[in-house]
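Entry for the shared binder. Reason: the reviewer on the internal report wants the predicted structure included alongside the sequence.
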Amino acid sequence: MKIAVLVKEVPDTWSDRKIDESTKRVDRGGDVVIDEINEKAVEAALLVKEANDGEVTAVTMGPKNALDAVRKALAMGADAGIHIMDDALGGSDAVQTSAALAAALASREFDLVIAGNESTDGRTAAIPAMLAERLGLAQATFLRTLSVKDGTVSGERMVEDGHVEVSAPLPALVSVTEQIAEARFPNFKGIMAAKKKPVETLALADLGIEASEAGGENSWSVVDTVTAKPPREGGTIIKDDGTAGQQLADYLASAKLI
């Protein structure tokens, strides 16, 4: 069974994230790490692999240092990697990203593609659905459980008031939530083995597409302006002088909270 899992490097969630005003993109000059949801997606892929005698390929798109996310997945137990790297993809939005990923995956006949439900930098939660559409795959998104048996993928899909049981025949694409699994820690043996595992680097020319095919000049959406969030202001303090209840009610009403 051939499994692909999408991984991505993002600014560390514990660091101060900001937008680079000159490029109008997320500033990636600080600490960057593999997205936590991607670690959980890798764990889900490895569990499916172990239950179905499969192989896992970690796939990413980004500059040279994005390879570190693939290496982390390889150290956890993935078997191979694909790194899409091309300057023309700089500043890509979800439309162009999905086009490049689909081109890399299309000819490799994966039985199952696993993604996190959303990245912690873009937070569009759109890539899995876009990718499934481009590849013509059944999709089961926002899964909190995942299993594969007898050519069918199934799981519990999170909905507003609980969850529903969903299933789809393979090949298929799924996205998983934070509840899917706790990611394993790479051991020393895994870290050393990752250095010898194959990673294929692909440019747009290798994919047979041009940036314009994936969405205009680098993307279909463009950020025109960037405004820093305002500094935090002190909160409203209500002193209990016998009218605290009325003061609180008036404040909530003025804020349109009641």
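Summary line for the report: The two ends are 54 Å apart (CA to CA).
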